[in-house]
Write a structure and sequence with these properties.
The chain is mostly beta strands. It is built from two helices and 16 strands. The strands form two sheets. Strands 1, 2, 3, 4, 5, 6, 7, 8, 11, 12, 14, 15 and 16 form a 13-stranded mixed beta sheet that branches. Strands 9-10-13 form a three-stranded antiparallel beta sheet, with no helix packed on it. A hairpin with a 2-residue loop joins strand 5 and strand 6. It is globular and about 60 Å long. The two termini are 23 Å apart.
């Protein structure tokens, strides 16, 4: 869940003083670039099949790239790969490269609770993953609340509500996007203590949420395994999957040619509900 940072006046004063010292001393120091050790290059497969409610879901994109040294400004794209997904009925959906590293399918058929198998062949290696397309509870309404932190400062909180199904265990991943956010803010939820009840997901960003700002909300249904994977990533990366990780986190994509040469990424299939909300 999104956490609210609580600051006292003393904290703010110390932060301001620290900033002044940093700015002063940085003006008389050279930038030092560390000579970091470069690890083994790994394949990265960004394979999210997302089926937005009310759409056909036929157009899907999978991106294939490689890891790069820390100071690289670009991500190496992988061209010439053979990318396909097969469902449990034996239907095969081919993804064709439309630009370097980007593979598109225009005739994908999403079916809830069906198993799908991803296959990526490149550079003499074949990578494979299996996952089920998971349903999502639709968003019923979005509201905003004005709340106070521990020192009495007011801020706006965005809340959306949905009815969790009673006959199953559910896991959800939500992202909040806005023009001022460099990366989406993510929130993981499960219905362990709320099964069958109305649930809510809340987002706040201290004093940055202002009237007139638009937030695009994507609410996904996800599998338990993907929930555990994302929970680990968000804990280690400090809430953002785009931060620099302190270690390797393996997903569900295996190398059938060489198990030790695994790929980064997680093949997931999610039904999603999307809404836009303008702060009042």
């Amino acid at each position: 869940m999104q956490r609210i940072n609580k600051y006292t006046f003393k904290n703010k004063a110390l932060a301001l003083l620290s900033l002044i010292f940093v700015l002063f001393f940085s003006s008389c120091e050279d930038v030092v670039q560390l000579d970091l050790e470069t690890g083994q290059t790994k394949l990265v497969i960004d394979a999210e099949i997302i089926w937005q409610k009310g759409t056909a879901g036929n157009e899907q994109v999978i991106k294939v790239s490689k890891t790069a040294p820390y100071y690289n400004n670009t991500t190496p794209k992988v061209s010439g790969a053979q990318v396909k997904i097969e469902n449990s009925n034996g239907d095969v959906f081919t993804f064709n490269e439309t630009e370097p590293g980007s593979y598109v399918c225009n005739n994908f058929v999403p079916v809830l609770n069906m198993d799908y198998t991803l296959s990526v062949a490149t550079e003499g290696q074949t990578f494979r993953a299996v996952e089920k397309l998971t349903a999502v509870a639709p968003i019923d309404r979005v509201e905003q609340e004005t709340v106070k932190d521990a020192v009495g400062d007011e801020f706006i909180e965005i809340v959306f509500y949905y009815k969790d199904p009673a006959d199953q265990v559910n896991y959800y991943l939500t992202d909040f996007k806005s023009n001022y956010l460099l990366f989406p803010e993510y929130d993981l939820t499960r219905d362990e203590f709320f099964n069958g009840n109305e649930m809510d997901t809340r987002f706040t960003d201290d004093d940055k949420i202002k009237p007139g700002i638009t937030y695009n909300i994507t609410h996904r249904g996800i599998s338990k395994n993907f929930y555990n994977y994302m929970n680990l990533i968000l804990e280690i990366y400090g809430g953002s999957p785009f931060s620099i990780p302190p270690g390797n986190i393996r997903g569900n994509i295996i190398n059938t040619s060489d198990p030790n040469n695994f790929a980064f990424g997680y093949f997931r299939l999610c039904e999603a509900d999307k809404v836009s909300y303008v702060v009042k």
